[in-house]
Amino acid sequence: MSGFFTQSFPPEPKFTEDSICNSLAGKVFLVTGGYSGVGFALSKILWAKGGRVIIVGRDEAAYEAAKTLIEAAPTSFYSTQNPRAGSLEFCKVDLADLTTIKPAIETLLTTLDRLDVAWYNAGVMHSPAGSTTKQNLELQWGINVVAHFALHKMLIPILNKTAASEKSGTVRTVWVSSLMSFRSPKPYGINFEDVNYRSTKGASSLKYGQSKAAAVILAHEYAKRAKEEALIGEDGAKKPAVVSVSANPGNLKTNLQRHQNVVLRTLSNAILLYPQRLGGYTELFAGLSPQIGEEDFNGQFVIPFGRKGKMCRSIETGLKEADTGKKLWDMLEEEVKPYI
Ligand SMILES: NC(=O)c1ccc[n+]([C@@H]2O[C@H](COP(=O)([O-])OP(=O)(O)OC[C@H]3O[C@@H](n4cnc5c(N)ncnc54)[C@H](OP(=O)(O)O)[C@@H]3O)[C@@H](O)[C@H]2O)c1
Q1: For residue 164, which of 14, 207, 239, 266 is within the disulfide window of CB 3.0 to 4.6 Å?
Q2: Residue 97 Cα: closest atom of ligand 1
Q3: Spacing, Cα 229 to ligand 1 middle (Å)
Q4: How far is the CA of 64 from the centre of ligand 1 (A)?
Q5: What count of other Cβ atoms lies within 10 Å of the Cβ of residue 41?
Q6: Which residue's C-alpha comes closest to atom 8 of ligand 1?
Q7: Is the pTM of this model over 0.85?
Q8: Number of structural domains, the chain?
Q9: DSSP notation for 7-68
């Protein structure tokens, strides 16, 4: 498995809150699943640097508990600087029900005049066999892929508008993937004939891998589209485009393993998994590091705990030789059309 070792046993993060010299006051960030796990770690850092952080999730009580925790300990993890409190907001969306996205995001958009970075971070793994969303999609596919695509489609106009007036490379979308994207269906990551595995047999891990391959493919496809669609200014020149990357946050101790067998979970917690805050730094790097830009690292794959990496080779081959990016994008556009 290419890159397995370096992604499973990564070095300490180099890009932390102390690497961000300026306050993030005035910047607007959106994090799906930002009240727990990696999303919580990231939201805490963004808030502590002064950012306005919108947490998209389904459980308001969980959001309130996270908000209390973030505000009660107003230092972020490694920082030696004084924190500058930003703001936290909740946007209630159940990603397992596509009908909840449009009303919530339409309301949210009335309060936003910019959006700097969106992290498509919420996710489920190894959900019990037969678990489906309200629209009867396989749960991991429905939440990790389809719902995030619908949300993304609704955010494109404000991302474009923000990118047009900002420094190139600073307005971004981060599609949270996993090392498990390397274990996705062959040949190119997506079982296009039956993405919901209705008539095909597939282990839960394969379905999860497929959903995480989709994050890599969509990040790449959106990077291409965003560049093509970058707005033209009065001078006839193209404006900066939204930058789009995928990221494997790392193997981390979070609630993601909630459906895993207890023995396996205990073992992996002891041997393989790292503290969740480290995953926050991977996502921070993907969203804010100046090492990522419109020209040199767009549509690519970030690895733990904040480094430029290489996506799974078969996914890359599919993108180049089978146009899987367009195929997946077109398929999802049809799927979400009735809901956005
Ligand atoms: N942990 C790892 O080792 C690891 C490794 C590679 C990639 N990742 C990826 O990292 C991301 C974050 O996961 P995590 O490890 O931080 O796990 P986590 O603690 O379980 O966080 C997942 C988040 O997704 C939210 N979510 C799940 N179903 C939802 C729904 N129907 N509607 C709205 N929100 C929903 C959860 O909210 P609720 O609490 O309300 O369910 C939670 O906030 C995921 O995309 C995961 O695939 C994690």
Answers
A1: 239
A2: 31
A3: 31
A4: 17
A5: 26
A6: 178
A7: yes
A8: 1
A9: HHSPPPPS--GGG--S--TT-EEEEETTTSHHHHHHHHHHHHTT-EEEEEES-HHHHHHHHH
- Please give the positions annotated as active site: 177, 208, 212
Ligand 1 centroid to residue 39 C-alpha, Å: 8
What is the per-residue pLDDT across 218-255, written as a single tens digit (0 to 9) for each? 999 999 999 988 878 778 888 899 999 999 999 999 88
Residue 340 lies in a domain: no
Under DSSP, is residue 140 helix (H, G, I), strand (E, B) or coil? helix
CATH of the domain at 178: 3.40.50.720
Q: Is residue 144 part of a domain?
A: yes
Which residue ranges have their beta carbon within 6 Å of ligand 1? 33, 35-39, 57-59, 62, 94-96, 121-125, 143, 176, 178, 248-249, 251-252, 254-256
Nearest alpha carbon, ligand 1 atom 45 = 123
Provide the domain limits for residue 200.
4-335
The structure tokens listed for 242 are 């939204």
CA distance 224 to 328: 14
Q: How far is residue 292's CA from residue 223's CA, in Å, rounded to a whole number? A: 12
Amino acid at 87: S
